[in-house]
Design goal:
The complex is a heterodimer. By secondary structure, chain A is of the alpha+beta class. Chain A contains two helices and 13 strands. Chain A has a domain of 100 residues: Macroglobulin (MG2) domain (Immunoglobulin-like, Sandwich), CATH 2.60.40. In chain A, α1 runs antiparallel to α2. Chain A is elongated, with a radius of gyration of 33 Å. The chains are: A alpha+beta, B alpha+beta.
Chain lengths: 255, 132
């Protein structure tokens, strides 16, 4: 009788062991579920990084194209470079199929994605704008992203002068450089003035002074013989991205 | 009766072992993805203001190596190669901080554009491994 009871007990132990193993299995399943979740997050992060790289590249190629256009004046460079960039992005990504499409902005004042306004009243703008559509199918992660890139370099020139004696005038020019409307640093700032119908460099004149305030504002002062009634100055600036912009201004007289 | 219970228990044990082996490669894959994320983030940091493209335009390989040494965590080995638009390698010096074994190595590919008027396109390949 006792032996039979023992046998029944050992059967129960087996059942308990099976239950324990089942619990172990269940916890393992939960562990796998957690791991898969974290894997999906990591894959998503990897795709996000790639998307960010593509956006950065789009921004850089528009900056470079604008630098090229403002330097050489061929506006077709922008679309050519963006086509190169789009096919480059489409070709090498290993984990999925990226497709990058772009549309150059063609609403006023932009023409074929570019807008150059180098005015005579103290304002100069060099700008390029494009809309992008990016899609990426990466196994479990699908990305559809529309974004716009606007690269704008603008300059505001203000100038005052005072007559020292005869035609000798002291001219003070203040240039404010902006990238996308925010203060930006310049690579080079060249100021010219008009005298007897010719444009001359201000930095070759006596008492030339240049101050960089470090906040996108540059102050230039010089003295020159200027026989004209109006003292016209021109500021030619390359920003740190290599984009060129210029603006002319007529100086106002101060006592 | 006990034979059936023993059979069931053994079957369940085998199932548990099978599931455990399934979990192990997934964990390795997570580590590799983490490595890739660290590498990509380092390249994005360098490329954020167009500095990376500028350094490549200038063929300033030592500055790139210095930047990677700073940006990548200590204990992480890397090997960095720059390819041009036609996928020809550009760097004539090795940009690396040590020996990478083929095991547990991750390769990150990154498209880079220089902000120069030429708008040069580069494909960057960063191979990463943690020292073990």
């Amino acid at each position: 009788m006792r032996k039979r009871n023992r046998r029944q007990c050992s059967g129960q132990i087996f059942i308990i062991a099976v239950l324990v193993v089942s619990l172990v299995l269940l916890s393992t399943q939960v562990y796998i579920y957690e791991i898969r979740n974290s894997l999906d997050e990591t894959r998503s992060a990897r795709v996000n990084d790639f998307v960010l790289a593509v956006k950065l590249g789009s921004n850089n190629i528009i900056s470079g194209s604008l630098a090229n256009i403002t330097e050489r004046g061929v506006s077709s460079v922008l679309s050519e470079n963006l086509e190169r960039w789009a096919s480059f992005v489409d070709s090498f990504y290993l984990f999925g199929t990226p497709i990058l499409n772009f549309t150059l902005k063609n609403t006023a004042p932009y023409v074929n994605g570019t807008y150059l306004f180098w005015g005579t009243e103290g304002l100069g703008i060099s700008s390029a704008y494009s809309d992008f559509n990016f899609s990426l199918a990466d196994g479990q992660v699908n990305v559809q992203l529309a974004y716009s890139i606007n690269v704008t370099t603008s300059i505001v020139v203000e100038s005052v002068y005072r007559t020292l004696s005869g035609n000798l005038r002291q001219v003070n020019v203040t240039c404010s450089l902006l990238n996308q409307g925010k203060p930006a640093l310049a690579e080079t700032v060249t100021v010219l003035y008009e005298s007897s119908g010719f444009w001359n460099r201000a930095d070759q004149q006596s008492n030339y002074a240049f101050a960089d305030y470090g906040n996108g504002i540059y102050f230039i002062s010089f003295e020159a013989d200027i026989p004209e009634i109006n003292v016209n100055v021109s500021a030619q600036v390359y920003d740190s991205r290599g984009v060129y912009v210029q603006a002319n201004a007529t100086s106002t007289s101060t006592p | 009766m006990r034979t059936v219970e023993a059979f069931l228990a053994i079957l369940l044990m085998f199932s548990a072992f099978a599931l455990t082996t399934l979990v192990t490669p997934a964990a390795t894959s997570t580590n590799n993805d983490d490595l890739a994320a660290v590498g990509t983030q380092a390249l994005i940091s360098m490329d954020n203001n167009g500095e990376l493209g500028k350094l490549i335009d200038e063929r300033n390989w030592s500055a790139i190596t210095d930047a990677l040494n700073v940006l990548l965590p200590v204990g992480m080995s890397y090997n960095f190669t720059v390819y041009d638009e036609n996928l020809q390698p550009l760097n004539n010096v090795t940009m690396s901080n040590g020996i990478i074994s083929d095991q547990n190595m991750v390769s990150v590919q990154y498209p880079c554009v220089s902000q120069s008027p030429q708008s040069n396109l580069y494909l960057l390949r960063l191979q990463l491994a943690t020292a073990r």
